[in-house]
Write a structure and sequence with these properties.
170 residues; 9 helices
Length: 170
Amino acid sequence: MISLKDAIEILRLGNTAFTKGCRIVNYQASGPGGQKRNRKLSAVRLSHIKSNITVTSAEFRETHRNLIIAVSKLRLEIALKIEISGLGIDDKLLEAINFKYDINEKKPDFQFSVLKTFYYFRQNSASVRETAEKLQISSPKLIKFLKKNKQVWQETQEIRKKHGHTPLNR
């Protein structure tokens, strides 16, 4: 888990500054693709040193494209793994971030949308209704947002299970 303040600072960094706080390891991807895939060190393992979160990407045969995907995955993972201090300070931190609530994964504000959603989701004991009210959106729109990304959906279900709620229908 990572504090909300640290997560905001990390997610505000540009990609170059963000990767400076990471350990990057290139390795040979396994699986289908034949000789071209297996002889190159094109897969990327990206570890954020401060939060100790690691992600991998081996979707493409080009290292650069895999690094871009890994950075995106790592940013999302950091947004998902925030902890709540419970001091009321976190609400002020979130209000200070100026971003458009966005459900499009390709937009830069998506990671902040995930961060804010999961902060309120954890704070409200995984209640969809209460989280939607706090975000000032409808419950169906919140569920649509949560379903948009496989990783976000899995984390949603895990949090609901921890709080004794039934899983949401896909």
